[in-house]
Design goal:
With 273 residues, the chain is α/β, with parallel strands linked by helices. The protein folds into three domains: 91 residues, 3-Layer(aba) Sandwich (D-Maltodextrin-Binding Protein, domain 2), CATH 3.40.190; 76 residues, Periplasmic binding protein-like II (D-Maltodextrin-Binding Protein, domain 2, 3-Layer(aba) Sandwich); 82 residues, 2-Layer Sandwich (Alpha-Beta Plaits). The chain is 27% helix and 34% strand. Helix 8 packs antiparallel against helix 9.
Length: 273
Amino acid sequence: MRRVAYLGPEGTNSHDAALSRYGESALLVPVTDIPTVVASVTARSVDEAIVPIENSTEGSVTVTLDMLIAGDAPRIVGEIVLPIRHQLVARPGTALTDIERVVSLGQPAAQCRTWLREHLPGAQVFPALSTAAAVAACVHSDRLAAIGSEAAARLYGMEVIAADIQDSADNATRFVILARERPGPTGRDRTSLVFALHADRPGSLVGALQPFAVRGINLTKIESRPTKAALGAYWFLIDCEGHEDDGPVADAISEVRALAAGMRVLGSYPRAD
């Protein structure tokens, strides 16, 4: 049976994503943080891993991007898009007026910013390592509430005291599946790659994107991350439609590699849409 690492413990959104993908066909292994989830594939202690990479409200999960940029990171072999519904969870019988502190992972708190401001303006927000850990932290206090899932509330014997508190009704998170293998083309693929440019000069980024444009290859995402080597030095991350073995995509990648100071394909994998 395959071993699959995810950002645990049970009851997190990552756990929900893993269940939606594998059900009971894999042994799901909870891990405490994203760097360790990624490293577990590299160390061969698991076969695959699931990590969040971007949210429709708050954007990219930067720790995931930074881990994927690292040269020894495993490849992206798949993706999952999961609708995210955040609940305010507390001890049974707790009222909103009782809440003095809200415990949450950073991204969920940001995704519920407006609701918190309108309904709990005096409550302080305290960090947690995961949504499930946030719920667990509130088990013994009537003054605490957590932003978590219904599954986490059930797991810890807690109660949802306010439902669907996310600011966007269409809130969703994209997760990527990491492994050591290299999937072949399916005809409905996405390719993720990262590159750096030789110098900061006018038109350099346009030149790196042009090989995709002239071949009619759609870019579905582009963003930058600091290289951490110097101020103003960046990695550029791109998602495009197609597989790296498809002729036009392969040719575009070859051209970008010739222009770039460094480049790596993070993975070609079946699209979730």
